[in-house]
Amino acid sequence: MEQEQVVGGPRDGERETRDIRIQIWPYRSDMGVVSWWESDTRLTVSVVDYSFGREIEIQGNRAGLISLARDLLTLAQEGAPNKSDILLDSDGLDGESETLRMMVCEPWGQ
Q1: How many Å apart are CA 22 and CA 29, to the nearest integer?
Q2: Residue 81: cis peptide before it, omega within 30 degrees of 0
Q3: Is 13 domain-assigned?
Q4: What is the extent of the structural domain holding 50?
Q5: Is 29 a domain residue?
Q6: Is 38 exposed, middle or buried (0-12, 13-18, 19+ CB in 10 A)?
Q7: C-alpha angle 86/89/91, rounded to 5°?
Q8: Nearest CA to 2 among 18, 20, 26?
Q9: What is the number of structural domains in the chain?
Q10: pTM, rounded to two decimals
């Protein structure tokens, strides 16, 4: 059964919001945290040095950004154990990107 979870909302109440639906696979202890990418996903992760410091830059087409959002929502769902992670390595991205590791830490700092 599909379960919908609504979290948060705008802080100022003056801006219009839009609901976006992204499907995720529910967490199962026998499979762990599992996600998938859209077929035409393009995503790169790089560390860029500027005179004022470093930035992590994520560039992607719409499918890539939706796929990244799915990965994050998969980790954020109820039931995903603390320290669950999804690792996007260079080979899974464009072959030249930095590795990106996303991890749930709940409660924060543990």
Answers
A1: 22
A2: no
A3: no
A4: 43-103
A5: no
A6: middle
A7: 135
A8: 26
A9: 1
A10: 0.82
